[in-house]
Amino acid sequence: MITLTHLAATPLAAEQRSQDVTDWAARIGWVVGLLLVIALVYWLMREGWKWRGTLQGDLPELPGPPAEPGPAKLALTGRYHGSTTAGQWLDRIVAHGLGTRSRVELTLTDQGVSVVRPGAQDFFIPAGSLRGARLDKGIAGKVLAEGGLLIVTWQLGDRQIDSGFRSDHAAEHAAWVEALDVNDDVEHGVKNVKNTEHNPEHNQEGAR
């Protein structure tokens, strides 16, 4: 038996079901618009990157490794996080692939620092071009915990550069800072790591 209640509920239920219909055209329009905005931002970033590289075209080519680099004093594996103008952690350098982040293998010898980057351009920092090293927390858009980055300062042409590295074992950073400390104990820009570690007089001086 159909009651008045059933008759009143039927149109209401039909109306509720009709509300489930979605305006797909509007939704697709919003998605397409969002994708276009993302594409525009990406294009602007890429053009800015290329323009920065053009402005840095005066930088000379990166040095290659010597034929006989000599025995390794220190080595680490980790990540290369980019390079900037020395002392200006946001002034990213992109010329010659220096702006490309990558895995890295660093090796220190008497000849300098070998920077091997799988998938990116390798380069070599001659000992005479080294200007020191320090621990820091950020470089070129990458921020880590205090002391989480090893910053190596070196000379390329007329410009001093800060290059940021992070070892897979952060405890290794301190040894690199000590080895690359440019002072009177340095010969050709690379400290004698072995003598530094085993010279009692040096250790006592550091303790004072």
Task: Explain what the structure shows.
The structure is a single chain. This protein is of the alpha+beta class and 208 residues long. It has 2 domains: 23-55; 74-207, Roll (PH-domain like), CATH 2.30.29.30. It is built from 5 helices and 12 strands. 21% of the residues are buried.
Write the CATH architecture name of the largest domain.
Answer: Roll
Helix and strand content put the structural class at alpha+beta
Number of helices: 5
Task: Note the gap between the termini.
Answer: 102 Å
CATH class of the largest domain: Mainly Beta
Mean pLDDT: 77
Largest sheet: 8 strands, antiparallel
SSE string: HHEEEEEEEEEEHEEHH
- Over all CA atoms, what is the radius of gyration? 29 Å
The 3D shape can be described as elongated
DSSP E strands, number: 12
Low-confidence residue ranges = 184-188, 193-208
CATH superfamily of the largest domain: Pleckstrin-homology domain (PH domain)/Phosphotyrosine-binding domain (PTB)
- What portion of residues is helical? 25-40%
Taken as a percent bin, the fraction of beta residues is 25-35%
Q: What's the structural domain tally?
A: 2
CATH fold-level assignment of the largest domain: PH-domain like
Question: How are the secondary structure elements laid out?
Answer:
Layout: H1 4-18, H2 24-55, E1 74-85, E2 92-93, E3 102-109, E4 112-116, E5 123-126, E6 130-136, E7 138-139, E8 142-143, E9 149-156, E10 159-167, H3 173-179, E11 186-187, E12 190-191, H4 193-198, H5 200-207
Antiparallel strand pairs: 1-2, 1-3, 1-10, 3-4, 4-5, 6-9, 7-8, 9-10, 11-12
